[in-house]
Amino acid sequence: MSVLIRGGTVVTSDDSFRADVYTQDGVIKAVGEGIEAPGDAEVIDAGGQLVMPGGIDPHTHMQLPFMGTVASEDFFTGTVAAAAGGTTMCIDFVIPGPQEPVLEAYDKWRGWSEKAAADYSFHVAITWWDETVHRDMGTLVQEHGVNSFKHFMAYKNAIMADDETLVNSFMRAKELGAICTVHAENGELVFRLQQEMKDRGITGPEGHPLSRPPEVEGEAANRAIRIAQVLNVPLYVVHTSCMESLEAITRARLEGQRVFGEVLAGHLVIDDSVYRHPDFEFAAAHVMSPPFRAKPHQEALWRGLQAGNLQTTATDHCCFCSDQKAAGIDDFSLIPNGTAGVEDRMSVMWDQGVGTGRLTPNEFVAATSTNAAKIFNIYPRKGTVTVGADADLVVWDPEGTRTISAKTHHQNIDFNIFEGMTVKGINTHTISQGRIVWADGQVQNMERGSGRYIDRPAFASYYDAMARREDLLTPTAVERAKAAE
Ligand code: URQ
Ligand code: ZN
Ligand code: ZN
Q1: Apex CA 285: angle with CA 280 and CA 286, to 5°?
Q2: Mean pLDDT across 401-428
Q3: pLDDT, tens digit, for every residue of 77-123?
Q4: Contact between 445 and 437 (Cβ < 8 Å)
Q5: Going by C-beta distance under 8 Å and a sequence separation of 6 or more, which residues neighbour residue 235?
Q6: How far is ligand 3, taken at its centre, from the CA of residue 317, in Å?
């Protein structure tokens, strides 16, 4: 199986140049001008188009059991929809329930994901703590290619990690050479504000953003960043949605702390007016956490992306159809939280990023693919166009347009938060593992189960040094310890 992409302009995160790309057996074999391919190679004429690394979405939840139901998108339909929009790898989440053995949860998710049709990997959430969790984190890093552990600071009485769990897990991740990620919302405040809204008789979807104001996110982001600072462990803040958490990330990065920020395509283009729509289905379809914010937050997030204080874009693709969202018809806190986006992220980011001059094509590649590959340690296997890399690619028509709609999308959900948006900049071809899986507006060659679980190695070298040298703790911590002697 070989593909020759001829006549395009290769765009990576740091370079743009005219070159053909030849792939064979799922690997990029040659990048250069005038490549002659063997007779049986499939040839794509990429004249006037760009050839970029396939998108990596570092934040999806296929078939997630959550809030009394299960997300409607599974690992097969979700990876197909992703490829239809130019994303060739998703990093999903294993989320153990309270007291659920971590390795058992991991095995369960691995079973569900066997149906995937494109490559994927898993962050593993630490939702509770005891010595078995400490042990299982080691097994996951050393035997299962996990190098990132998630912590939900929201969702009290469900999967919320308290500070004790955060500190224990962050220290264990550092020992193992793994990175910590957080969903940064103060779950205690959310719980209290939800009750307050209902006491005031606010039970509709408009109560959702009122119970999770930006300050609730800013507090948690800052707390996680400070805990990571004291423990000297890198931190990745998922779905940064507002100025308050962006400011916390920016301050930390200005001080040289290793903090990364992720922003969702949805949070960059959709505002909180959706929750005041008179139609319950429409408003409820937008219920996700953190909620969509008032317009000034979007401009701040774009500036964060442009300034390099936010590194990746994602979707938090977590689908619940209208009949599932209806669980909260009388109480917004019962509306399953989640929205879709895995099929539209790439075009929305090009249209609103490159199309408006906010991002260069190279910055687009960094934000939709390369940075996620680097942060989660699968670069240059993924996230670039170079000999030896996996043949995950998109052929991109910067002049092509399409209008986004639930009527035509491949996502298994009856709503699209980008409904009606006409985007300029579309993938005419997607190549996944060296197979052409999207061409002529059609999915092709996507076999159920053909996706691979991608191991992500720990950052052992950096961490071995860090874990051994006490003096690398922040000076204040060392001074405090000396003073206490
Ligand atoms: O919080 C998350 O990331 C998961 C549960 C998806 N739902 C959401 O509202 N973001
Ligand atoms: Zn989250
Ligand atoms: Zn999520």
Answers
A1: 105
A2: 98
A3: 999 999 999 999 999 999 999 999 999 999 999 999 999 999 999 99
A4: yes
A5: 179, 180, 181, 182, 224, 225, 228, 257, 258, 259, 260
A6: 7
Residue of 337, 339, 342, 417 to mutate, ligand 1, most atoms within 8 A of C-beta: 337
- Sign for the pseudo-dihedral over CA of 207, 209, 211, 213: negative
Ligand closest in space to the Cα of 237: 2
Q: Say if residue 478's pLDDT is above 60.
A: no
Q: What is the 8-class DSSP label of residue 390?
A: B
- Who surrounds ion ligand 2 at CB < 5 A? 183
| Torsions phi, psi for 127 (to 5 deg) | -110, -5
Per the structure, the count of domains in the chain is 1
In 3D, which of 91, 84, 61, 89 has the Cα closest to residue 155?
61
pLDDT tops 50 at residue 474: no
The alpha carbon of 30 is separated from its chain's Cα centroid by a whole number of angstroms, namely 30
Q: Give the residue carrying structure tokens 């937008």.
A: 286
| DSSP 8-state class, residue 60 | B
Does residue 208 line the site of ligand 1, with CB under 6 A? Answer: no
Give which of 475, 52, 86, 41 is closest to 315, Cα–Cα: 86
- 164-203 burial: b if 16+ Cβ within 10 Å, else e: ebbebbbbbbbbbbbbbbbbbbbbbbbbebbeebbeeebb
CATH, residue 468: 3.20.20.140
**CA distances (Å), origin 239, targets 59, 130, 167, 468:** 9, 28, 21, 32
Question: CA separation (Å) from 129 to 92, 141, 166, 421?
Answer: 21, 17, 9, 44
- Could you give the 3-state DSSP secondary structure of residue 160? strand
Token pair 């690394």 is at which residue? 53
CA of 49: how far to CAs of 5, 184, 406, 408, 428, in Å? 10, 39, 27, 24, 9
Taking the CA of residue 440 as centre, how many other CA atoms within 13 Å lie in the half-sphere pointing to its CB? 2
Closest CA to 243 of 299, 190, 287, 286: 299
Query: What's the pTM value of the predicted model, to 2 decimals?
Result: 0.95
Contact between 182 and 150 under an 8 Å Cβ cutoff? The reply is yes
Report d(CA 342, CA 417) in Å as an integer. Answer: 11
Question: Could you tell me the residue range of the domain that residue 480 belongs to?
Answer: 1-485
3-state helix, strand, coil in the chain (%, to 5): 40, 25, 40
Sheet holding 20-24: strands in order across?
Answer: 27-32, 20-24, 2-6, 42-45
Q: Which protein residues have a CB closer than 5 Å to ligand 3 (ion)?
A: 316
